[in-house]
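New here. Invent one.

***
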Amino acid sequence: MSDQEAKLSTENMEDKKEGEYVKLKVIGQDIPMNLLRFLLEGQRIADNHTPKELEMEEEDGVEVYQEQTRGHSRI
C-alpha cells in the first residue's frame, strides 16, 4: 500500500463513527444476499443491526450460511 493510499484510507476512517457499522464484501460466490444468513452466537442478525447494538467485542465473529431451498432426497 502506498503512502497516498494509506493516507486516503485513514482519512476515510476519520469520517466514520467508531463501532457504528460493519462493511462486508463477498466476492467470487455469485450468491444473492437474500440467500445468506448471518449468525452471532447462534442468533440470526438482521441487516440493520450494528455491532454496538449486538454488544460485539473485538474478537467476536459472525457466521455466514447459505440458505438451502428445494432440497429433498429420493428413496
